[in-house]
Amino acid sequence: MRRNILLKLGAISIGVFISLVGTETILRLQNFIKIDGFSSGSPWNDVLHHGSGKFTVAEYGPDCKGEKIKLLLLGDSWMEDNYLGPTLGREIASKTKACVQTVNGGNSSYAPTVYLLRARQAFEAYGKFDYVIVNIDETDIGDEWLRYRIPTVRDTSGRIVAVPYEHDMEAQYLWNGKLWAENSNFYVVRLLKFTYYYEILVPSFYRFIVSPDLYSNLMQYVFAPDARSLYKREHQHFEDRLSEMSSELISVTNDASTSRVYVTYHPHLRGLVDSVDDGLLYLPIVSELLTRLQEKSGVRVLDARNHVREIHGKGFPDNTYAPDDPFSHLMVEGAIRYGKWIADQIDFN
């Protein structure tokens, strides 16, 4: 009897050992779950919160050894992709019959405060621009209020000078958790630590400050039916940042003219419904704020809200938005059509 028990325990121990070795090997070879490489790299940026700070520069059209139309492109992941920016460059080159140099500073999760800083950096690196196009997204209100409001640094004159990652306590909390979980020689232990941290500890922490649901957290400021009444302060904060941004963008154009700055906007799918009674839908708050921006600052606003069917054709919305994406990123063809529409609205005279 005792011998049988020992044999069973031995077999179980060997089985557990083999399972652990197999799991350890798989975790070291797989590419589905990122559980290493954090200690050797950092998203921290002492000016832009996150991102490398680099610009993507490209040229389109004929005779690019001579005079160029210099175009600064700013935005979040919509402008960062490989389709909207290049489409703008190609279309403008085609319309003007000139070489167009695009300097693209788009980066995921950026918003007007960081667009302002990127415009300043672009001017310092490339001089003044003939045109500036900045794409505002539905997520920008939440990003401004939740991510950039507290870390923003101003100089003694009140001018925005940085949004340091190190001032963002929530972001540091998440990043330090990755470093803590990675601090083990065994990948199985790392996986357990990651699971504990992100499935138990972080949600518990977020319960006392914000919703752990990124989508609801960012988009609550436009949710129907009562976002206007609930978030007046947040909307005003965003409007103020739009105003500061537009002043900076105007200053980096060749003749400091409002006619050289274009603020573009394409609504998310949930903001293009006929009734607010159909679910978690968006109010046209961004459109309203951009209308006021144009009236106050004089910059040109290109709002696609009333033109989406003209832009995307009979296949809208199935041919436009990435499937099952709550943030409504555009499909490749949708981004190209949007870029062509923007280029068609620009006055090159």
Please describe the structure with a list of short key phrases separated by commas or semicolons.
349 residues; two-stranded antiparallel ribbon; elongated; 6-stranded mixed sheet; alpha/beta
What this model shows, in words?
The chain has helices at about 1-30, 75-80, 85-95, 110-125, 140-150, 170-180, 185-205, 215-220, 225-230, 230-250, 285-295, 310, 330-345; strands at about 55-60, 70-75, 100-105, 130-135, 155, 160, 260-265, 300-305. The chain is an alpha/beta fold and about 350 residues long. It has 2 domains: about 1-30; about 55-165 and about 215-345, SGNH hydrolase (Rossmann fold, 3-Layer(aba) Sandwich), CATH 3.40.50. The radius of gyration is 24 Å and the shape is elongated. The mean pLDDT is about 90.
CATH topology of the largest domain: Rossmann fold
Point out poorly predicted stretches. none
Q: Tell me the fraction of residues in β-strands, as a range.
A: 5-15%
What's the CATH H-level homologous superfamily of the largest domain?
A: SGNH hydrolase
Gyration radius, rounded = 24 Å
Domain module count: 2
Just give the CATH class of the largest domain: Alpha Beta
Structural class comes to alpha/beta
